[in-house]
Write a structure and sequence with these properties.
Strands 2-1-3-4-5-6 form a 6-stranded mixed β-sheet. It is α/β, with parallel strands linked by helices. It is built from 3 helices and 6 strands, in the order ααβαβββββ. The protein has one domain. Helix 2 packs parallel to helix 3. It is globular.
């Protein structure tokens, strides 16, 4: 009789352990997607330039930030929608626009090729979608004479990713 009780206890414990293991997320941490990296880079830029990145004019309009891939590959509509959704709580501060290539957003009739609308362009390197941390390069471009390239590590979990360990690589 004692043996059957222990068998029952062991069975219940085994069932509980199996249930806990089966219900946990065995897929590991959520991968950093391209949209996550873009959103993290925009939030980093806004935080790093808090004193100057509030408006583009005295009228109080939101700062325009263009995002373009360094590769020149088109940004998927799903990626664009995800970034817009991520940034929606900051719509009074920033307007995000997308370009497939850098030259689409430049004032080509001005010598130092500034970004249109007094905006800034975040030219983002290839995002290797994987579990964090993921390293990405971002060129913060305002004009030929005002360009800064950074490397940043995208970290986080769940639905919030952020740029950490940011360091300037080159200045143009």
């Amino acid at each position: 009789m004692v043996a059957s009780r222990w068998g029952g206890v062991v069975g219940v414990v085994a069932l509980m352990v199996c249930s806990a293991a089966c219900s946990s997320d065995s897929s590991g941490p959520k991968a950093v997607k391209t949209a996550d990296a873009y959103s993290a880079a925009i939030r980093w830029y806004l935080a790093a330039n808090a004193g100057t990145a509030t408006t583009t004019s005295s009228s109080g309009r939101p700062l325009v930030v263009y995002v373009a891939p360094e590769s020149g590959k088109a940004i998927s509509s799903q990626t664009q929608a995800s970034v817009v959704k991520d940034m929606s709580t900051m719509s009074e501060v920033v307007t995000v626009r997308f370009a497939d290539v850098r030259d689409e957003v430049l004032e080509t009739d001005i010598d130092d090729l500034p970004v249109k609308d007094g905006a800034v362009l975040l030219l983002v390197g290839e995002v290797h979608e994987a579990a964090p941390p993921v390293d990405v390069t971002v060129d913060v471009y305002r004009s030929v004479n005002d360009s800064h390239e950074y490397t940043m590590t995208i970290t986080g979990s769940g639905d919030l990713f952020e740029a950490t360990r940011v360091s300037e690589v080159a200045q143009g």
